[in-house]
Amino acid sequence: MSIDAIKDAIRDIPDFPKPGILFKDITPLLADPTLFGRTIDMLAERVGAHDPAGIVAIESRGFLFGAPVASKLGIPLQLARKPGKLPYKTVGVTYDLEYGSDRMELHTDAIEAGASYAVIDDLIATGGTAAATADLIELQRGRVACCAFVIELSFLGGVQRLGSRPIESLIRY
Ligand code: AMP
What we know:
The chain is of the alpha/beta class. It has one domain (51-172): Rossmann fold, CATH 3.40.50. The chain has five helices and nine strands; from the N terminus they run H-E-E-H-H-E-H-E-E-E-E-H-E-E. It binds adenosine monophosphate (AMP).
């Protein structure tokens, strides 16, 4: 099965959630168990090559890919979430958006100092979300083994915001 079959299962929705955004809808991919399984296998292989000690999955669609990859690799899963969602004590970083700002949080005991983590999200656009998550891991004295995405919107240059951290993306536009 080629990557094109996975690409074909990602639907473009123009002007969602606001005018000018071409939204990459992964729900048809999730609805096809063969393609979804193959996506997880490929992502796990690419992430596993970096030998991370754990996965940090980004809310919310990153959870859909981070959780099965962590389970497949047999390593811990940690959740990076928007403010107010995590129940235990948290640490966070605030980052700039085109308009305003947002914040990403982790539980204070999520990151083991010196251990390396793979950051996983469904898609990288401007890179702000993944960069904030990577920064947060490093502020907690963890290391970033790689940042992995199903989809990279390369024309937005998001990977530059991740600096020298290794990037894995299955599909590029
Ligand atoms: P960014 O911080 O700009 O890299 O945005 C990445 C986050 O926003 C990811 O969690 C994506 O799920 C979501 N996102 C941004 N742009 C799109 C898009 N065009 N289609 C689908 N999701 C997007």
